[in-house]
Specification:
five-stranded mixed β-barrel; five-stranded parallel sheet; 14 strands; 51% helix
Length: 460
């Protein structure tokens, strides 16, 4: 082909050549990297194919779904997959290659196969699960124990989400009056920003993990598309590595996301999460009440048993005590009689001495009476003085002896803290009289005890 062509003529040649070379409709696999719908209802997309590293782009093409077909295709796809057409979704599209003089090459889409996308979603989901299992982290968060009283709760949710409001209302108005301390870590819960937003929230919680008992990730109900944002490797991995138990209530009744699977406790809705936290404390409270009742019952049983043992001991000790008191009284009586007899003998002897002195004085007085009266009077005066002194000294001796006898009274000795130790009724004065395993009896002022000899020690 020779000659010169205008730009429009060249564009027509390209268009016709492509039409002749690619006249049919083709099924094309691609990933949506951009998608937007304009005011007229047309949907414009950019499709890409990534290399095996899933990062670098291998191919790129623009695509369009005209408004006359877009409503039908969109509705059919969402009903079949539960997903909406969005960025990052891999799809199988039926389309025809067109070339426009102003807009260049594009793929005009006329149909989408939802079964391919479902397979891709399932495959991607299983790939994430297998990766977590291969790394040995899939069940790590599930191994953590939820505290018996989880009152300090870190909440990852959107501040404006209805699910967050339901969760807070359910906690505040619980039937038991339990008080919870919550801290909201605001995050995006759907869309392309979900992953980074949730990870940022978890990082903030981890920096002060000691302030919380559990972490809850909640959002309100939504479509299957909303759930797919939590089929995310990075979010799931963060959950497996988190130091606190994670409870999810993402709001789907049918399916569990990968994030739910790796969480310590997956629940369906935010309200279910609140009810679970309330039930945890209620279960613990009931258990404590049961334990208190059991302890009370056991304590009363032990007290009754010891009361019976005390009563039995009382019945045994009372007769023995009376016998010991009787024996001690008899011993004290014998000692008292012995002391009295000794005192009487001492007094009698003192009186005899005084009488002898008196008789001797009278005799000497009579013999001297024949002598000088002055001498007699002198002697009389001396005798009287000596007699008085002697009587005074004897009285003092008698008083001293009485005081000594009173001090030596066994009852007074025992009251001063001394004891009387005997073996088989014989009072012990020497440790040599005692052998190992002998049973000795020790008397006190108010009773006596029996002891078994376990050892002997020489005085050093």
């Amino acid at each position: 082909m020779q000659g010169r062509f205008s730009l429009s003529e060249l564009q027509v040649i390209i268009r016709d050549s492509l039409y002749l070379a690619l006249p049919d409709f083709y099924w094309v696999i691609g990933e949506i990297s951009e998608i937007k719908q304009n005011y007229s209802g047309h949907c414009y997309l950019e499709l890409i194919e990534k290399q095996t590293d899933e990062i670098k782009i291998k191919a790129r093409i623009r695509a369009v779904i005209w408004g006359s077909r877009y409503g039908f295709i969109k509705s059919f796809f969402e009903n079949a997959t539960g997903e909406t057409l969005k960025e990052g979704l891999k799809v199988l599209l039926k389309g025809k290659i067109e070339y426009h003089e102003l807009y260049g090459l594009s793929l005009v889409i006329t149909d989408i196969d939802p079964s391919f996308t479902l397979g891709e979603m399932a495959a991607r989901r299983m790939q994430i699960i297998r990766r977590l299992e291969d790394e040995g982290v899939f069940g790590m968060n599930r191994e953590l124990e939820i505290p018996l009283v989880p009152q300090r709760v870190a909440v990852i949710s959107s501040r404006t989400a209805a699910g967050y409001s339901d969760f807070m209302d359910q906690l505040r108005t619980n039937n038991y009056g339990y008080v919870y301390y919550t801290a909201l870590f605001d995050a995006v819960m759907q869309g392309s920003e979900t992953e980074q937003s949730i990870i940022n929230a978890m990082n903030r919680i981890a920096s002060s993990a000691e302030m919380f008992d559990v972490v809850v990730i909640i959002r309100g109900g939504g479509s299957q598309t909303d759930l797919s944002w939590f089929d995310n490797y990075n979010i799931a991995y963060y959950v497996t590595q988190f130091p606190l138990p994670v409870i999810t209530g993402i709001g789907h009744e049918k399916d569990l996301s990968v994030t739910d699977m790796v969480a310590c406790k997956p629940l369906k809705t935010p309200t279910a999460v609140a009810n679970f936290l309330v039930e945890c404390i209620n279960t613990t409270e009931n258990h404590l009440i049961e334990m208190g009742t059991d302890i009370k019952t056991l304590t009363l049983g032990v007290l009754d048993e010891f009361k019976e043992r005390l009563d039995r001991s009382k019945n045994i000790i009372s007769p023995l005590t009376r016998i010991m008191i009787s024996d001690f009284r008899k011993s004290l009586s014998d000692v008292s009689i012995e002391i009295l007899n000794l005192g009487k003998d001492k007094i009698h002897r003192a009186r005899l001495i005084i009488a002898n002195h008196k008789s001797k004085l009278e005799s000497e007085s009579k013999s001297l009476n024949s002598n000088k009266d002055v001498y007699i009077e002198s002697l009389k005066s001396g005798i009287i003085t000596k007699t008085r002194d002697l009587l005074k000294r004897n009285r003092e001796k008698v008083f001293t002896m009485g005081t000594s006898l009173n001090i030596l009274n066994p009852e007074n000795i025992l009251k001063r803290g001394y004891t009387i130790t005997s073996l088989n009724g014989r009072i012990l004065k020497d440790s040599e009289l005692i052998s190992i395993d002998d049973t000795i009896e020790t008397k006190f002022s108010d009773g006596k005890i029996s002891s078994k000899v376990t050892g002997k020690y020489d005085k050093k």
